[in-house]
Amino acid sequence: MNNSQITPEVVKTHNLTVEEYEKIKQILGREPNLTELGVFSVMWSEHCSYKSSRVHLKRLPVTGERVIVPPGENAGVVDIGDDWCVAFKVESHNHPSFIEPFQG
Asked: Catalytic one among 14, 47, 56, 95?
């Protein structure tokens, strides 16, 4: 497949929007090849970049007396009282669990 074969359907099957595809072209200064399109698709996926949940995650508190371990590379930990803490971590290497729980 060459650049001219990267159709809107191919972009869509990579779960990229038209706007994201235009941004890829802007970053590269040219049309991407299929391999590059795949790399952007993976790196901009929900699993790697939280592209659809980031806006919601930003609404949650990240500091405070009950935040034991803030968000980062691993689970966040919150003190829920009575000597109990809760660790929050959702991980899926198959598919984003909140989008498609069966596949995730």
From this structure: 47
